[in-house]
Every structure is written in C-alpha cells, then in structure tokens.
C-alpha cells in the first residue's frame, strides 16, 4: 500500500497512491473518522474492511 508521495518516489503513481479509476485499490476502512476524533482516540480505531488490489480481503 502506498500514499501518493510514496508511490511517486517508487515510480508507481500511475497505478497506486490515490483512489482513481484504473488504479489498484489498496485501502482500509476504519470505524471512525480519525480526522474528527481526539488524537488520543485514534489508537482505539478498528479496521472494518480492507481492500487489496480491488478485492475485499477482510470485512468485519
């Protein structure tokens, strides 16, 4: 999994690093918005879904 900057450094920005049509879908869905909670609560976040290569590999 890459963020856009890491994908760019690896020369993979055409296929990874952001969620766009034609790119590999690698991401996780958390049970809360980590930008809307106190930073002390972020560590208590649970992963509710993980997608790798556009396929759901984990779902709770």
Report what the structure shows.
The chain is of the alpha+beta class and 60 residues long. It has one domain (4-59). It is built from 1 helix and 3 strands, in the order H-E-E-E. The chain has one helix spanning 4-9, and strands at residues 27-30, 47-52, 55-59. A 3-stranded antiparallel beta sheet has the order 1-2-3, with no helix packed on it. A hairpin with a 2-residue loop joins strand 2 (47-52) and strand 3 (55-59). The longest helix has 6 residues, at 4-9. The two termini are 20 Å apart. The mean pLDDT is 91. InterPro entries: Amidohydro_3, Metal-dep_hydrolase_composite. Its EC number is 3.5.1.91. This is Amidohydrolase. It holds the Pfam family Amidohydro_3. Keywords: Hydrolase.
Keywords:
single chain; 60 residues; alpha+beta; three-stranded antiparallel sheet; 3 strands; flat
Number of domains: 1
Computed CA radius of gyration, to the nearest angstrom: 13 Å
SSE pattern: HEEE
Global shape: flat
Mean of residue pLDDT?
91
Instruction: Kindly name the structural category.
Output: alpha+beta
* Stretches with pLDDT under 50, minimum 5 residues: none
As a percent range, the share of strand residues is: 25-35%
- Helical amount: 10-25%
Distance from N terminus to C terminus (CA atoms, Å) equals 20 Å
The tally of beta strands, per DSSP, is 3
For the biggest β-sheet, the strand order reads 1-2-3
Keywords: Hydrolase
EC number: 3.5.1.91
GO molecular function: hydrolase activity, acting on carbon-nitrogen (but not peptide) bonds
Protein name: Amidohydrolase
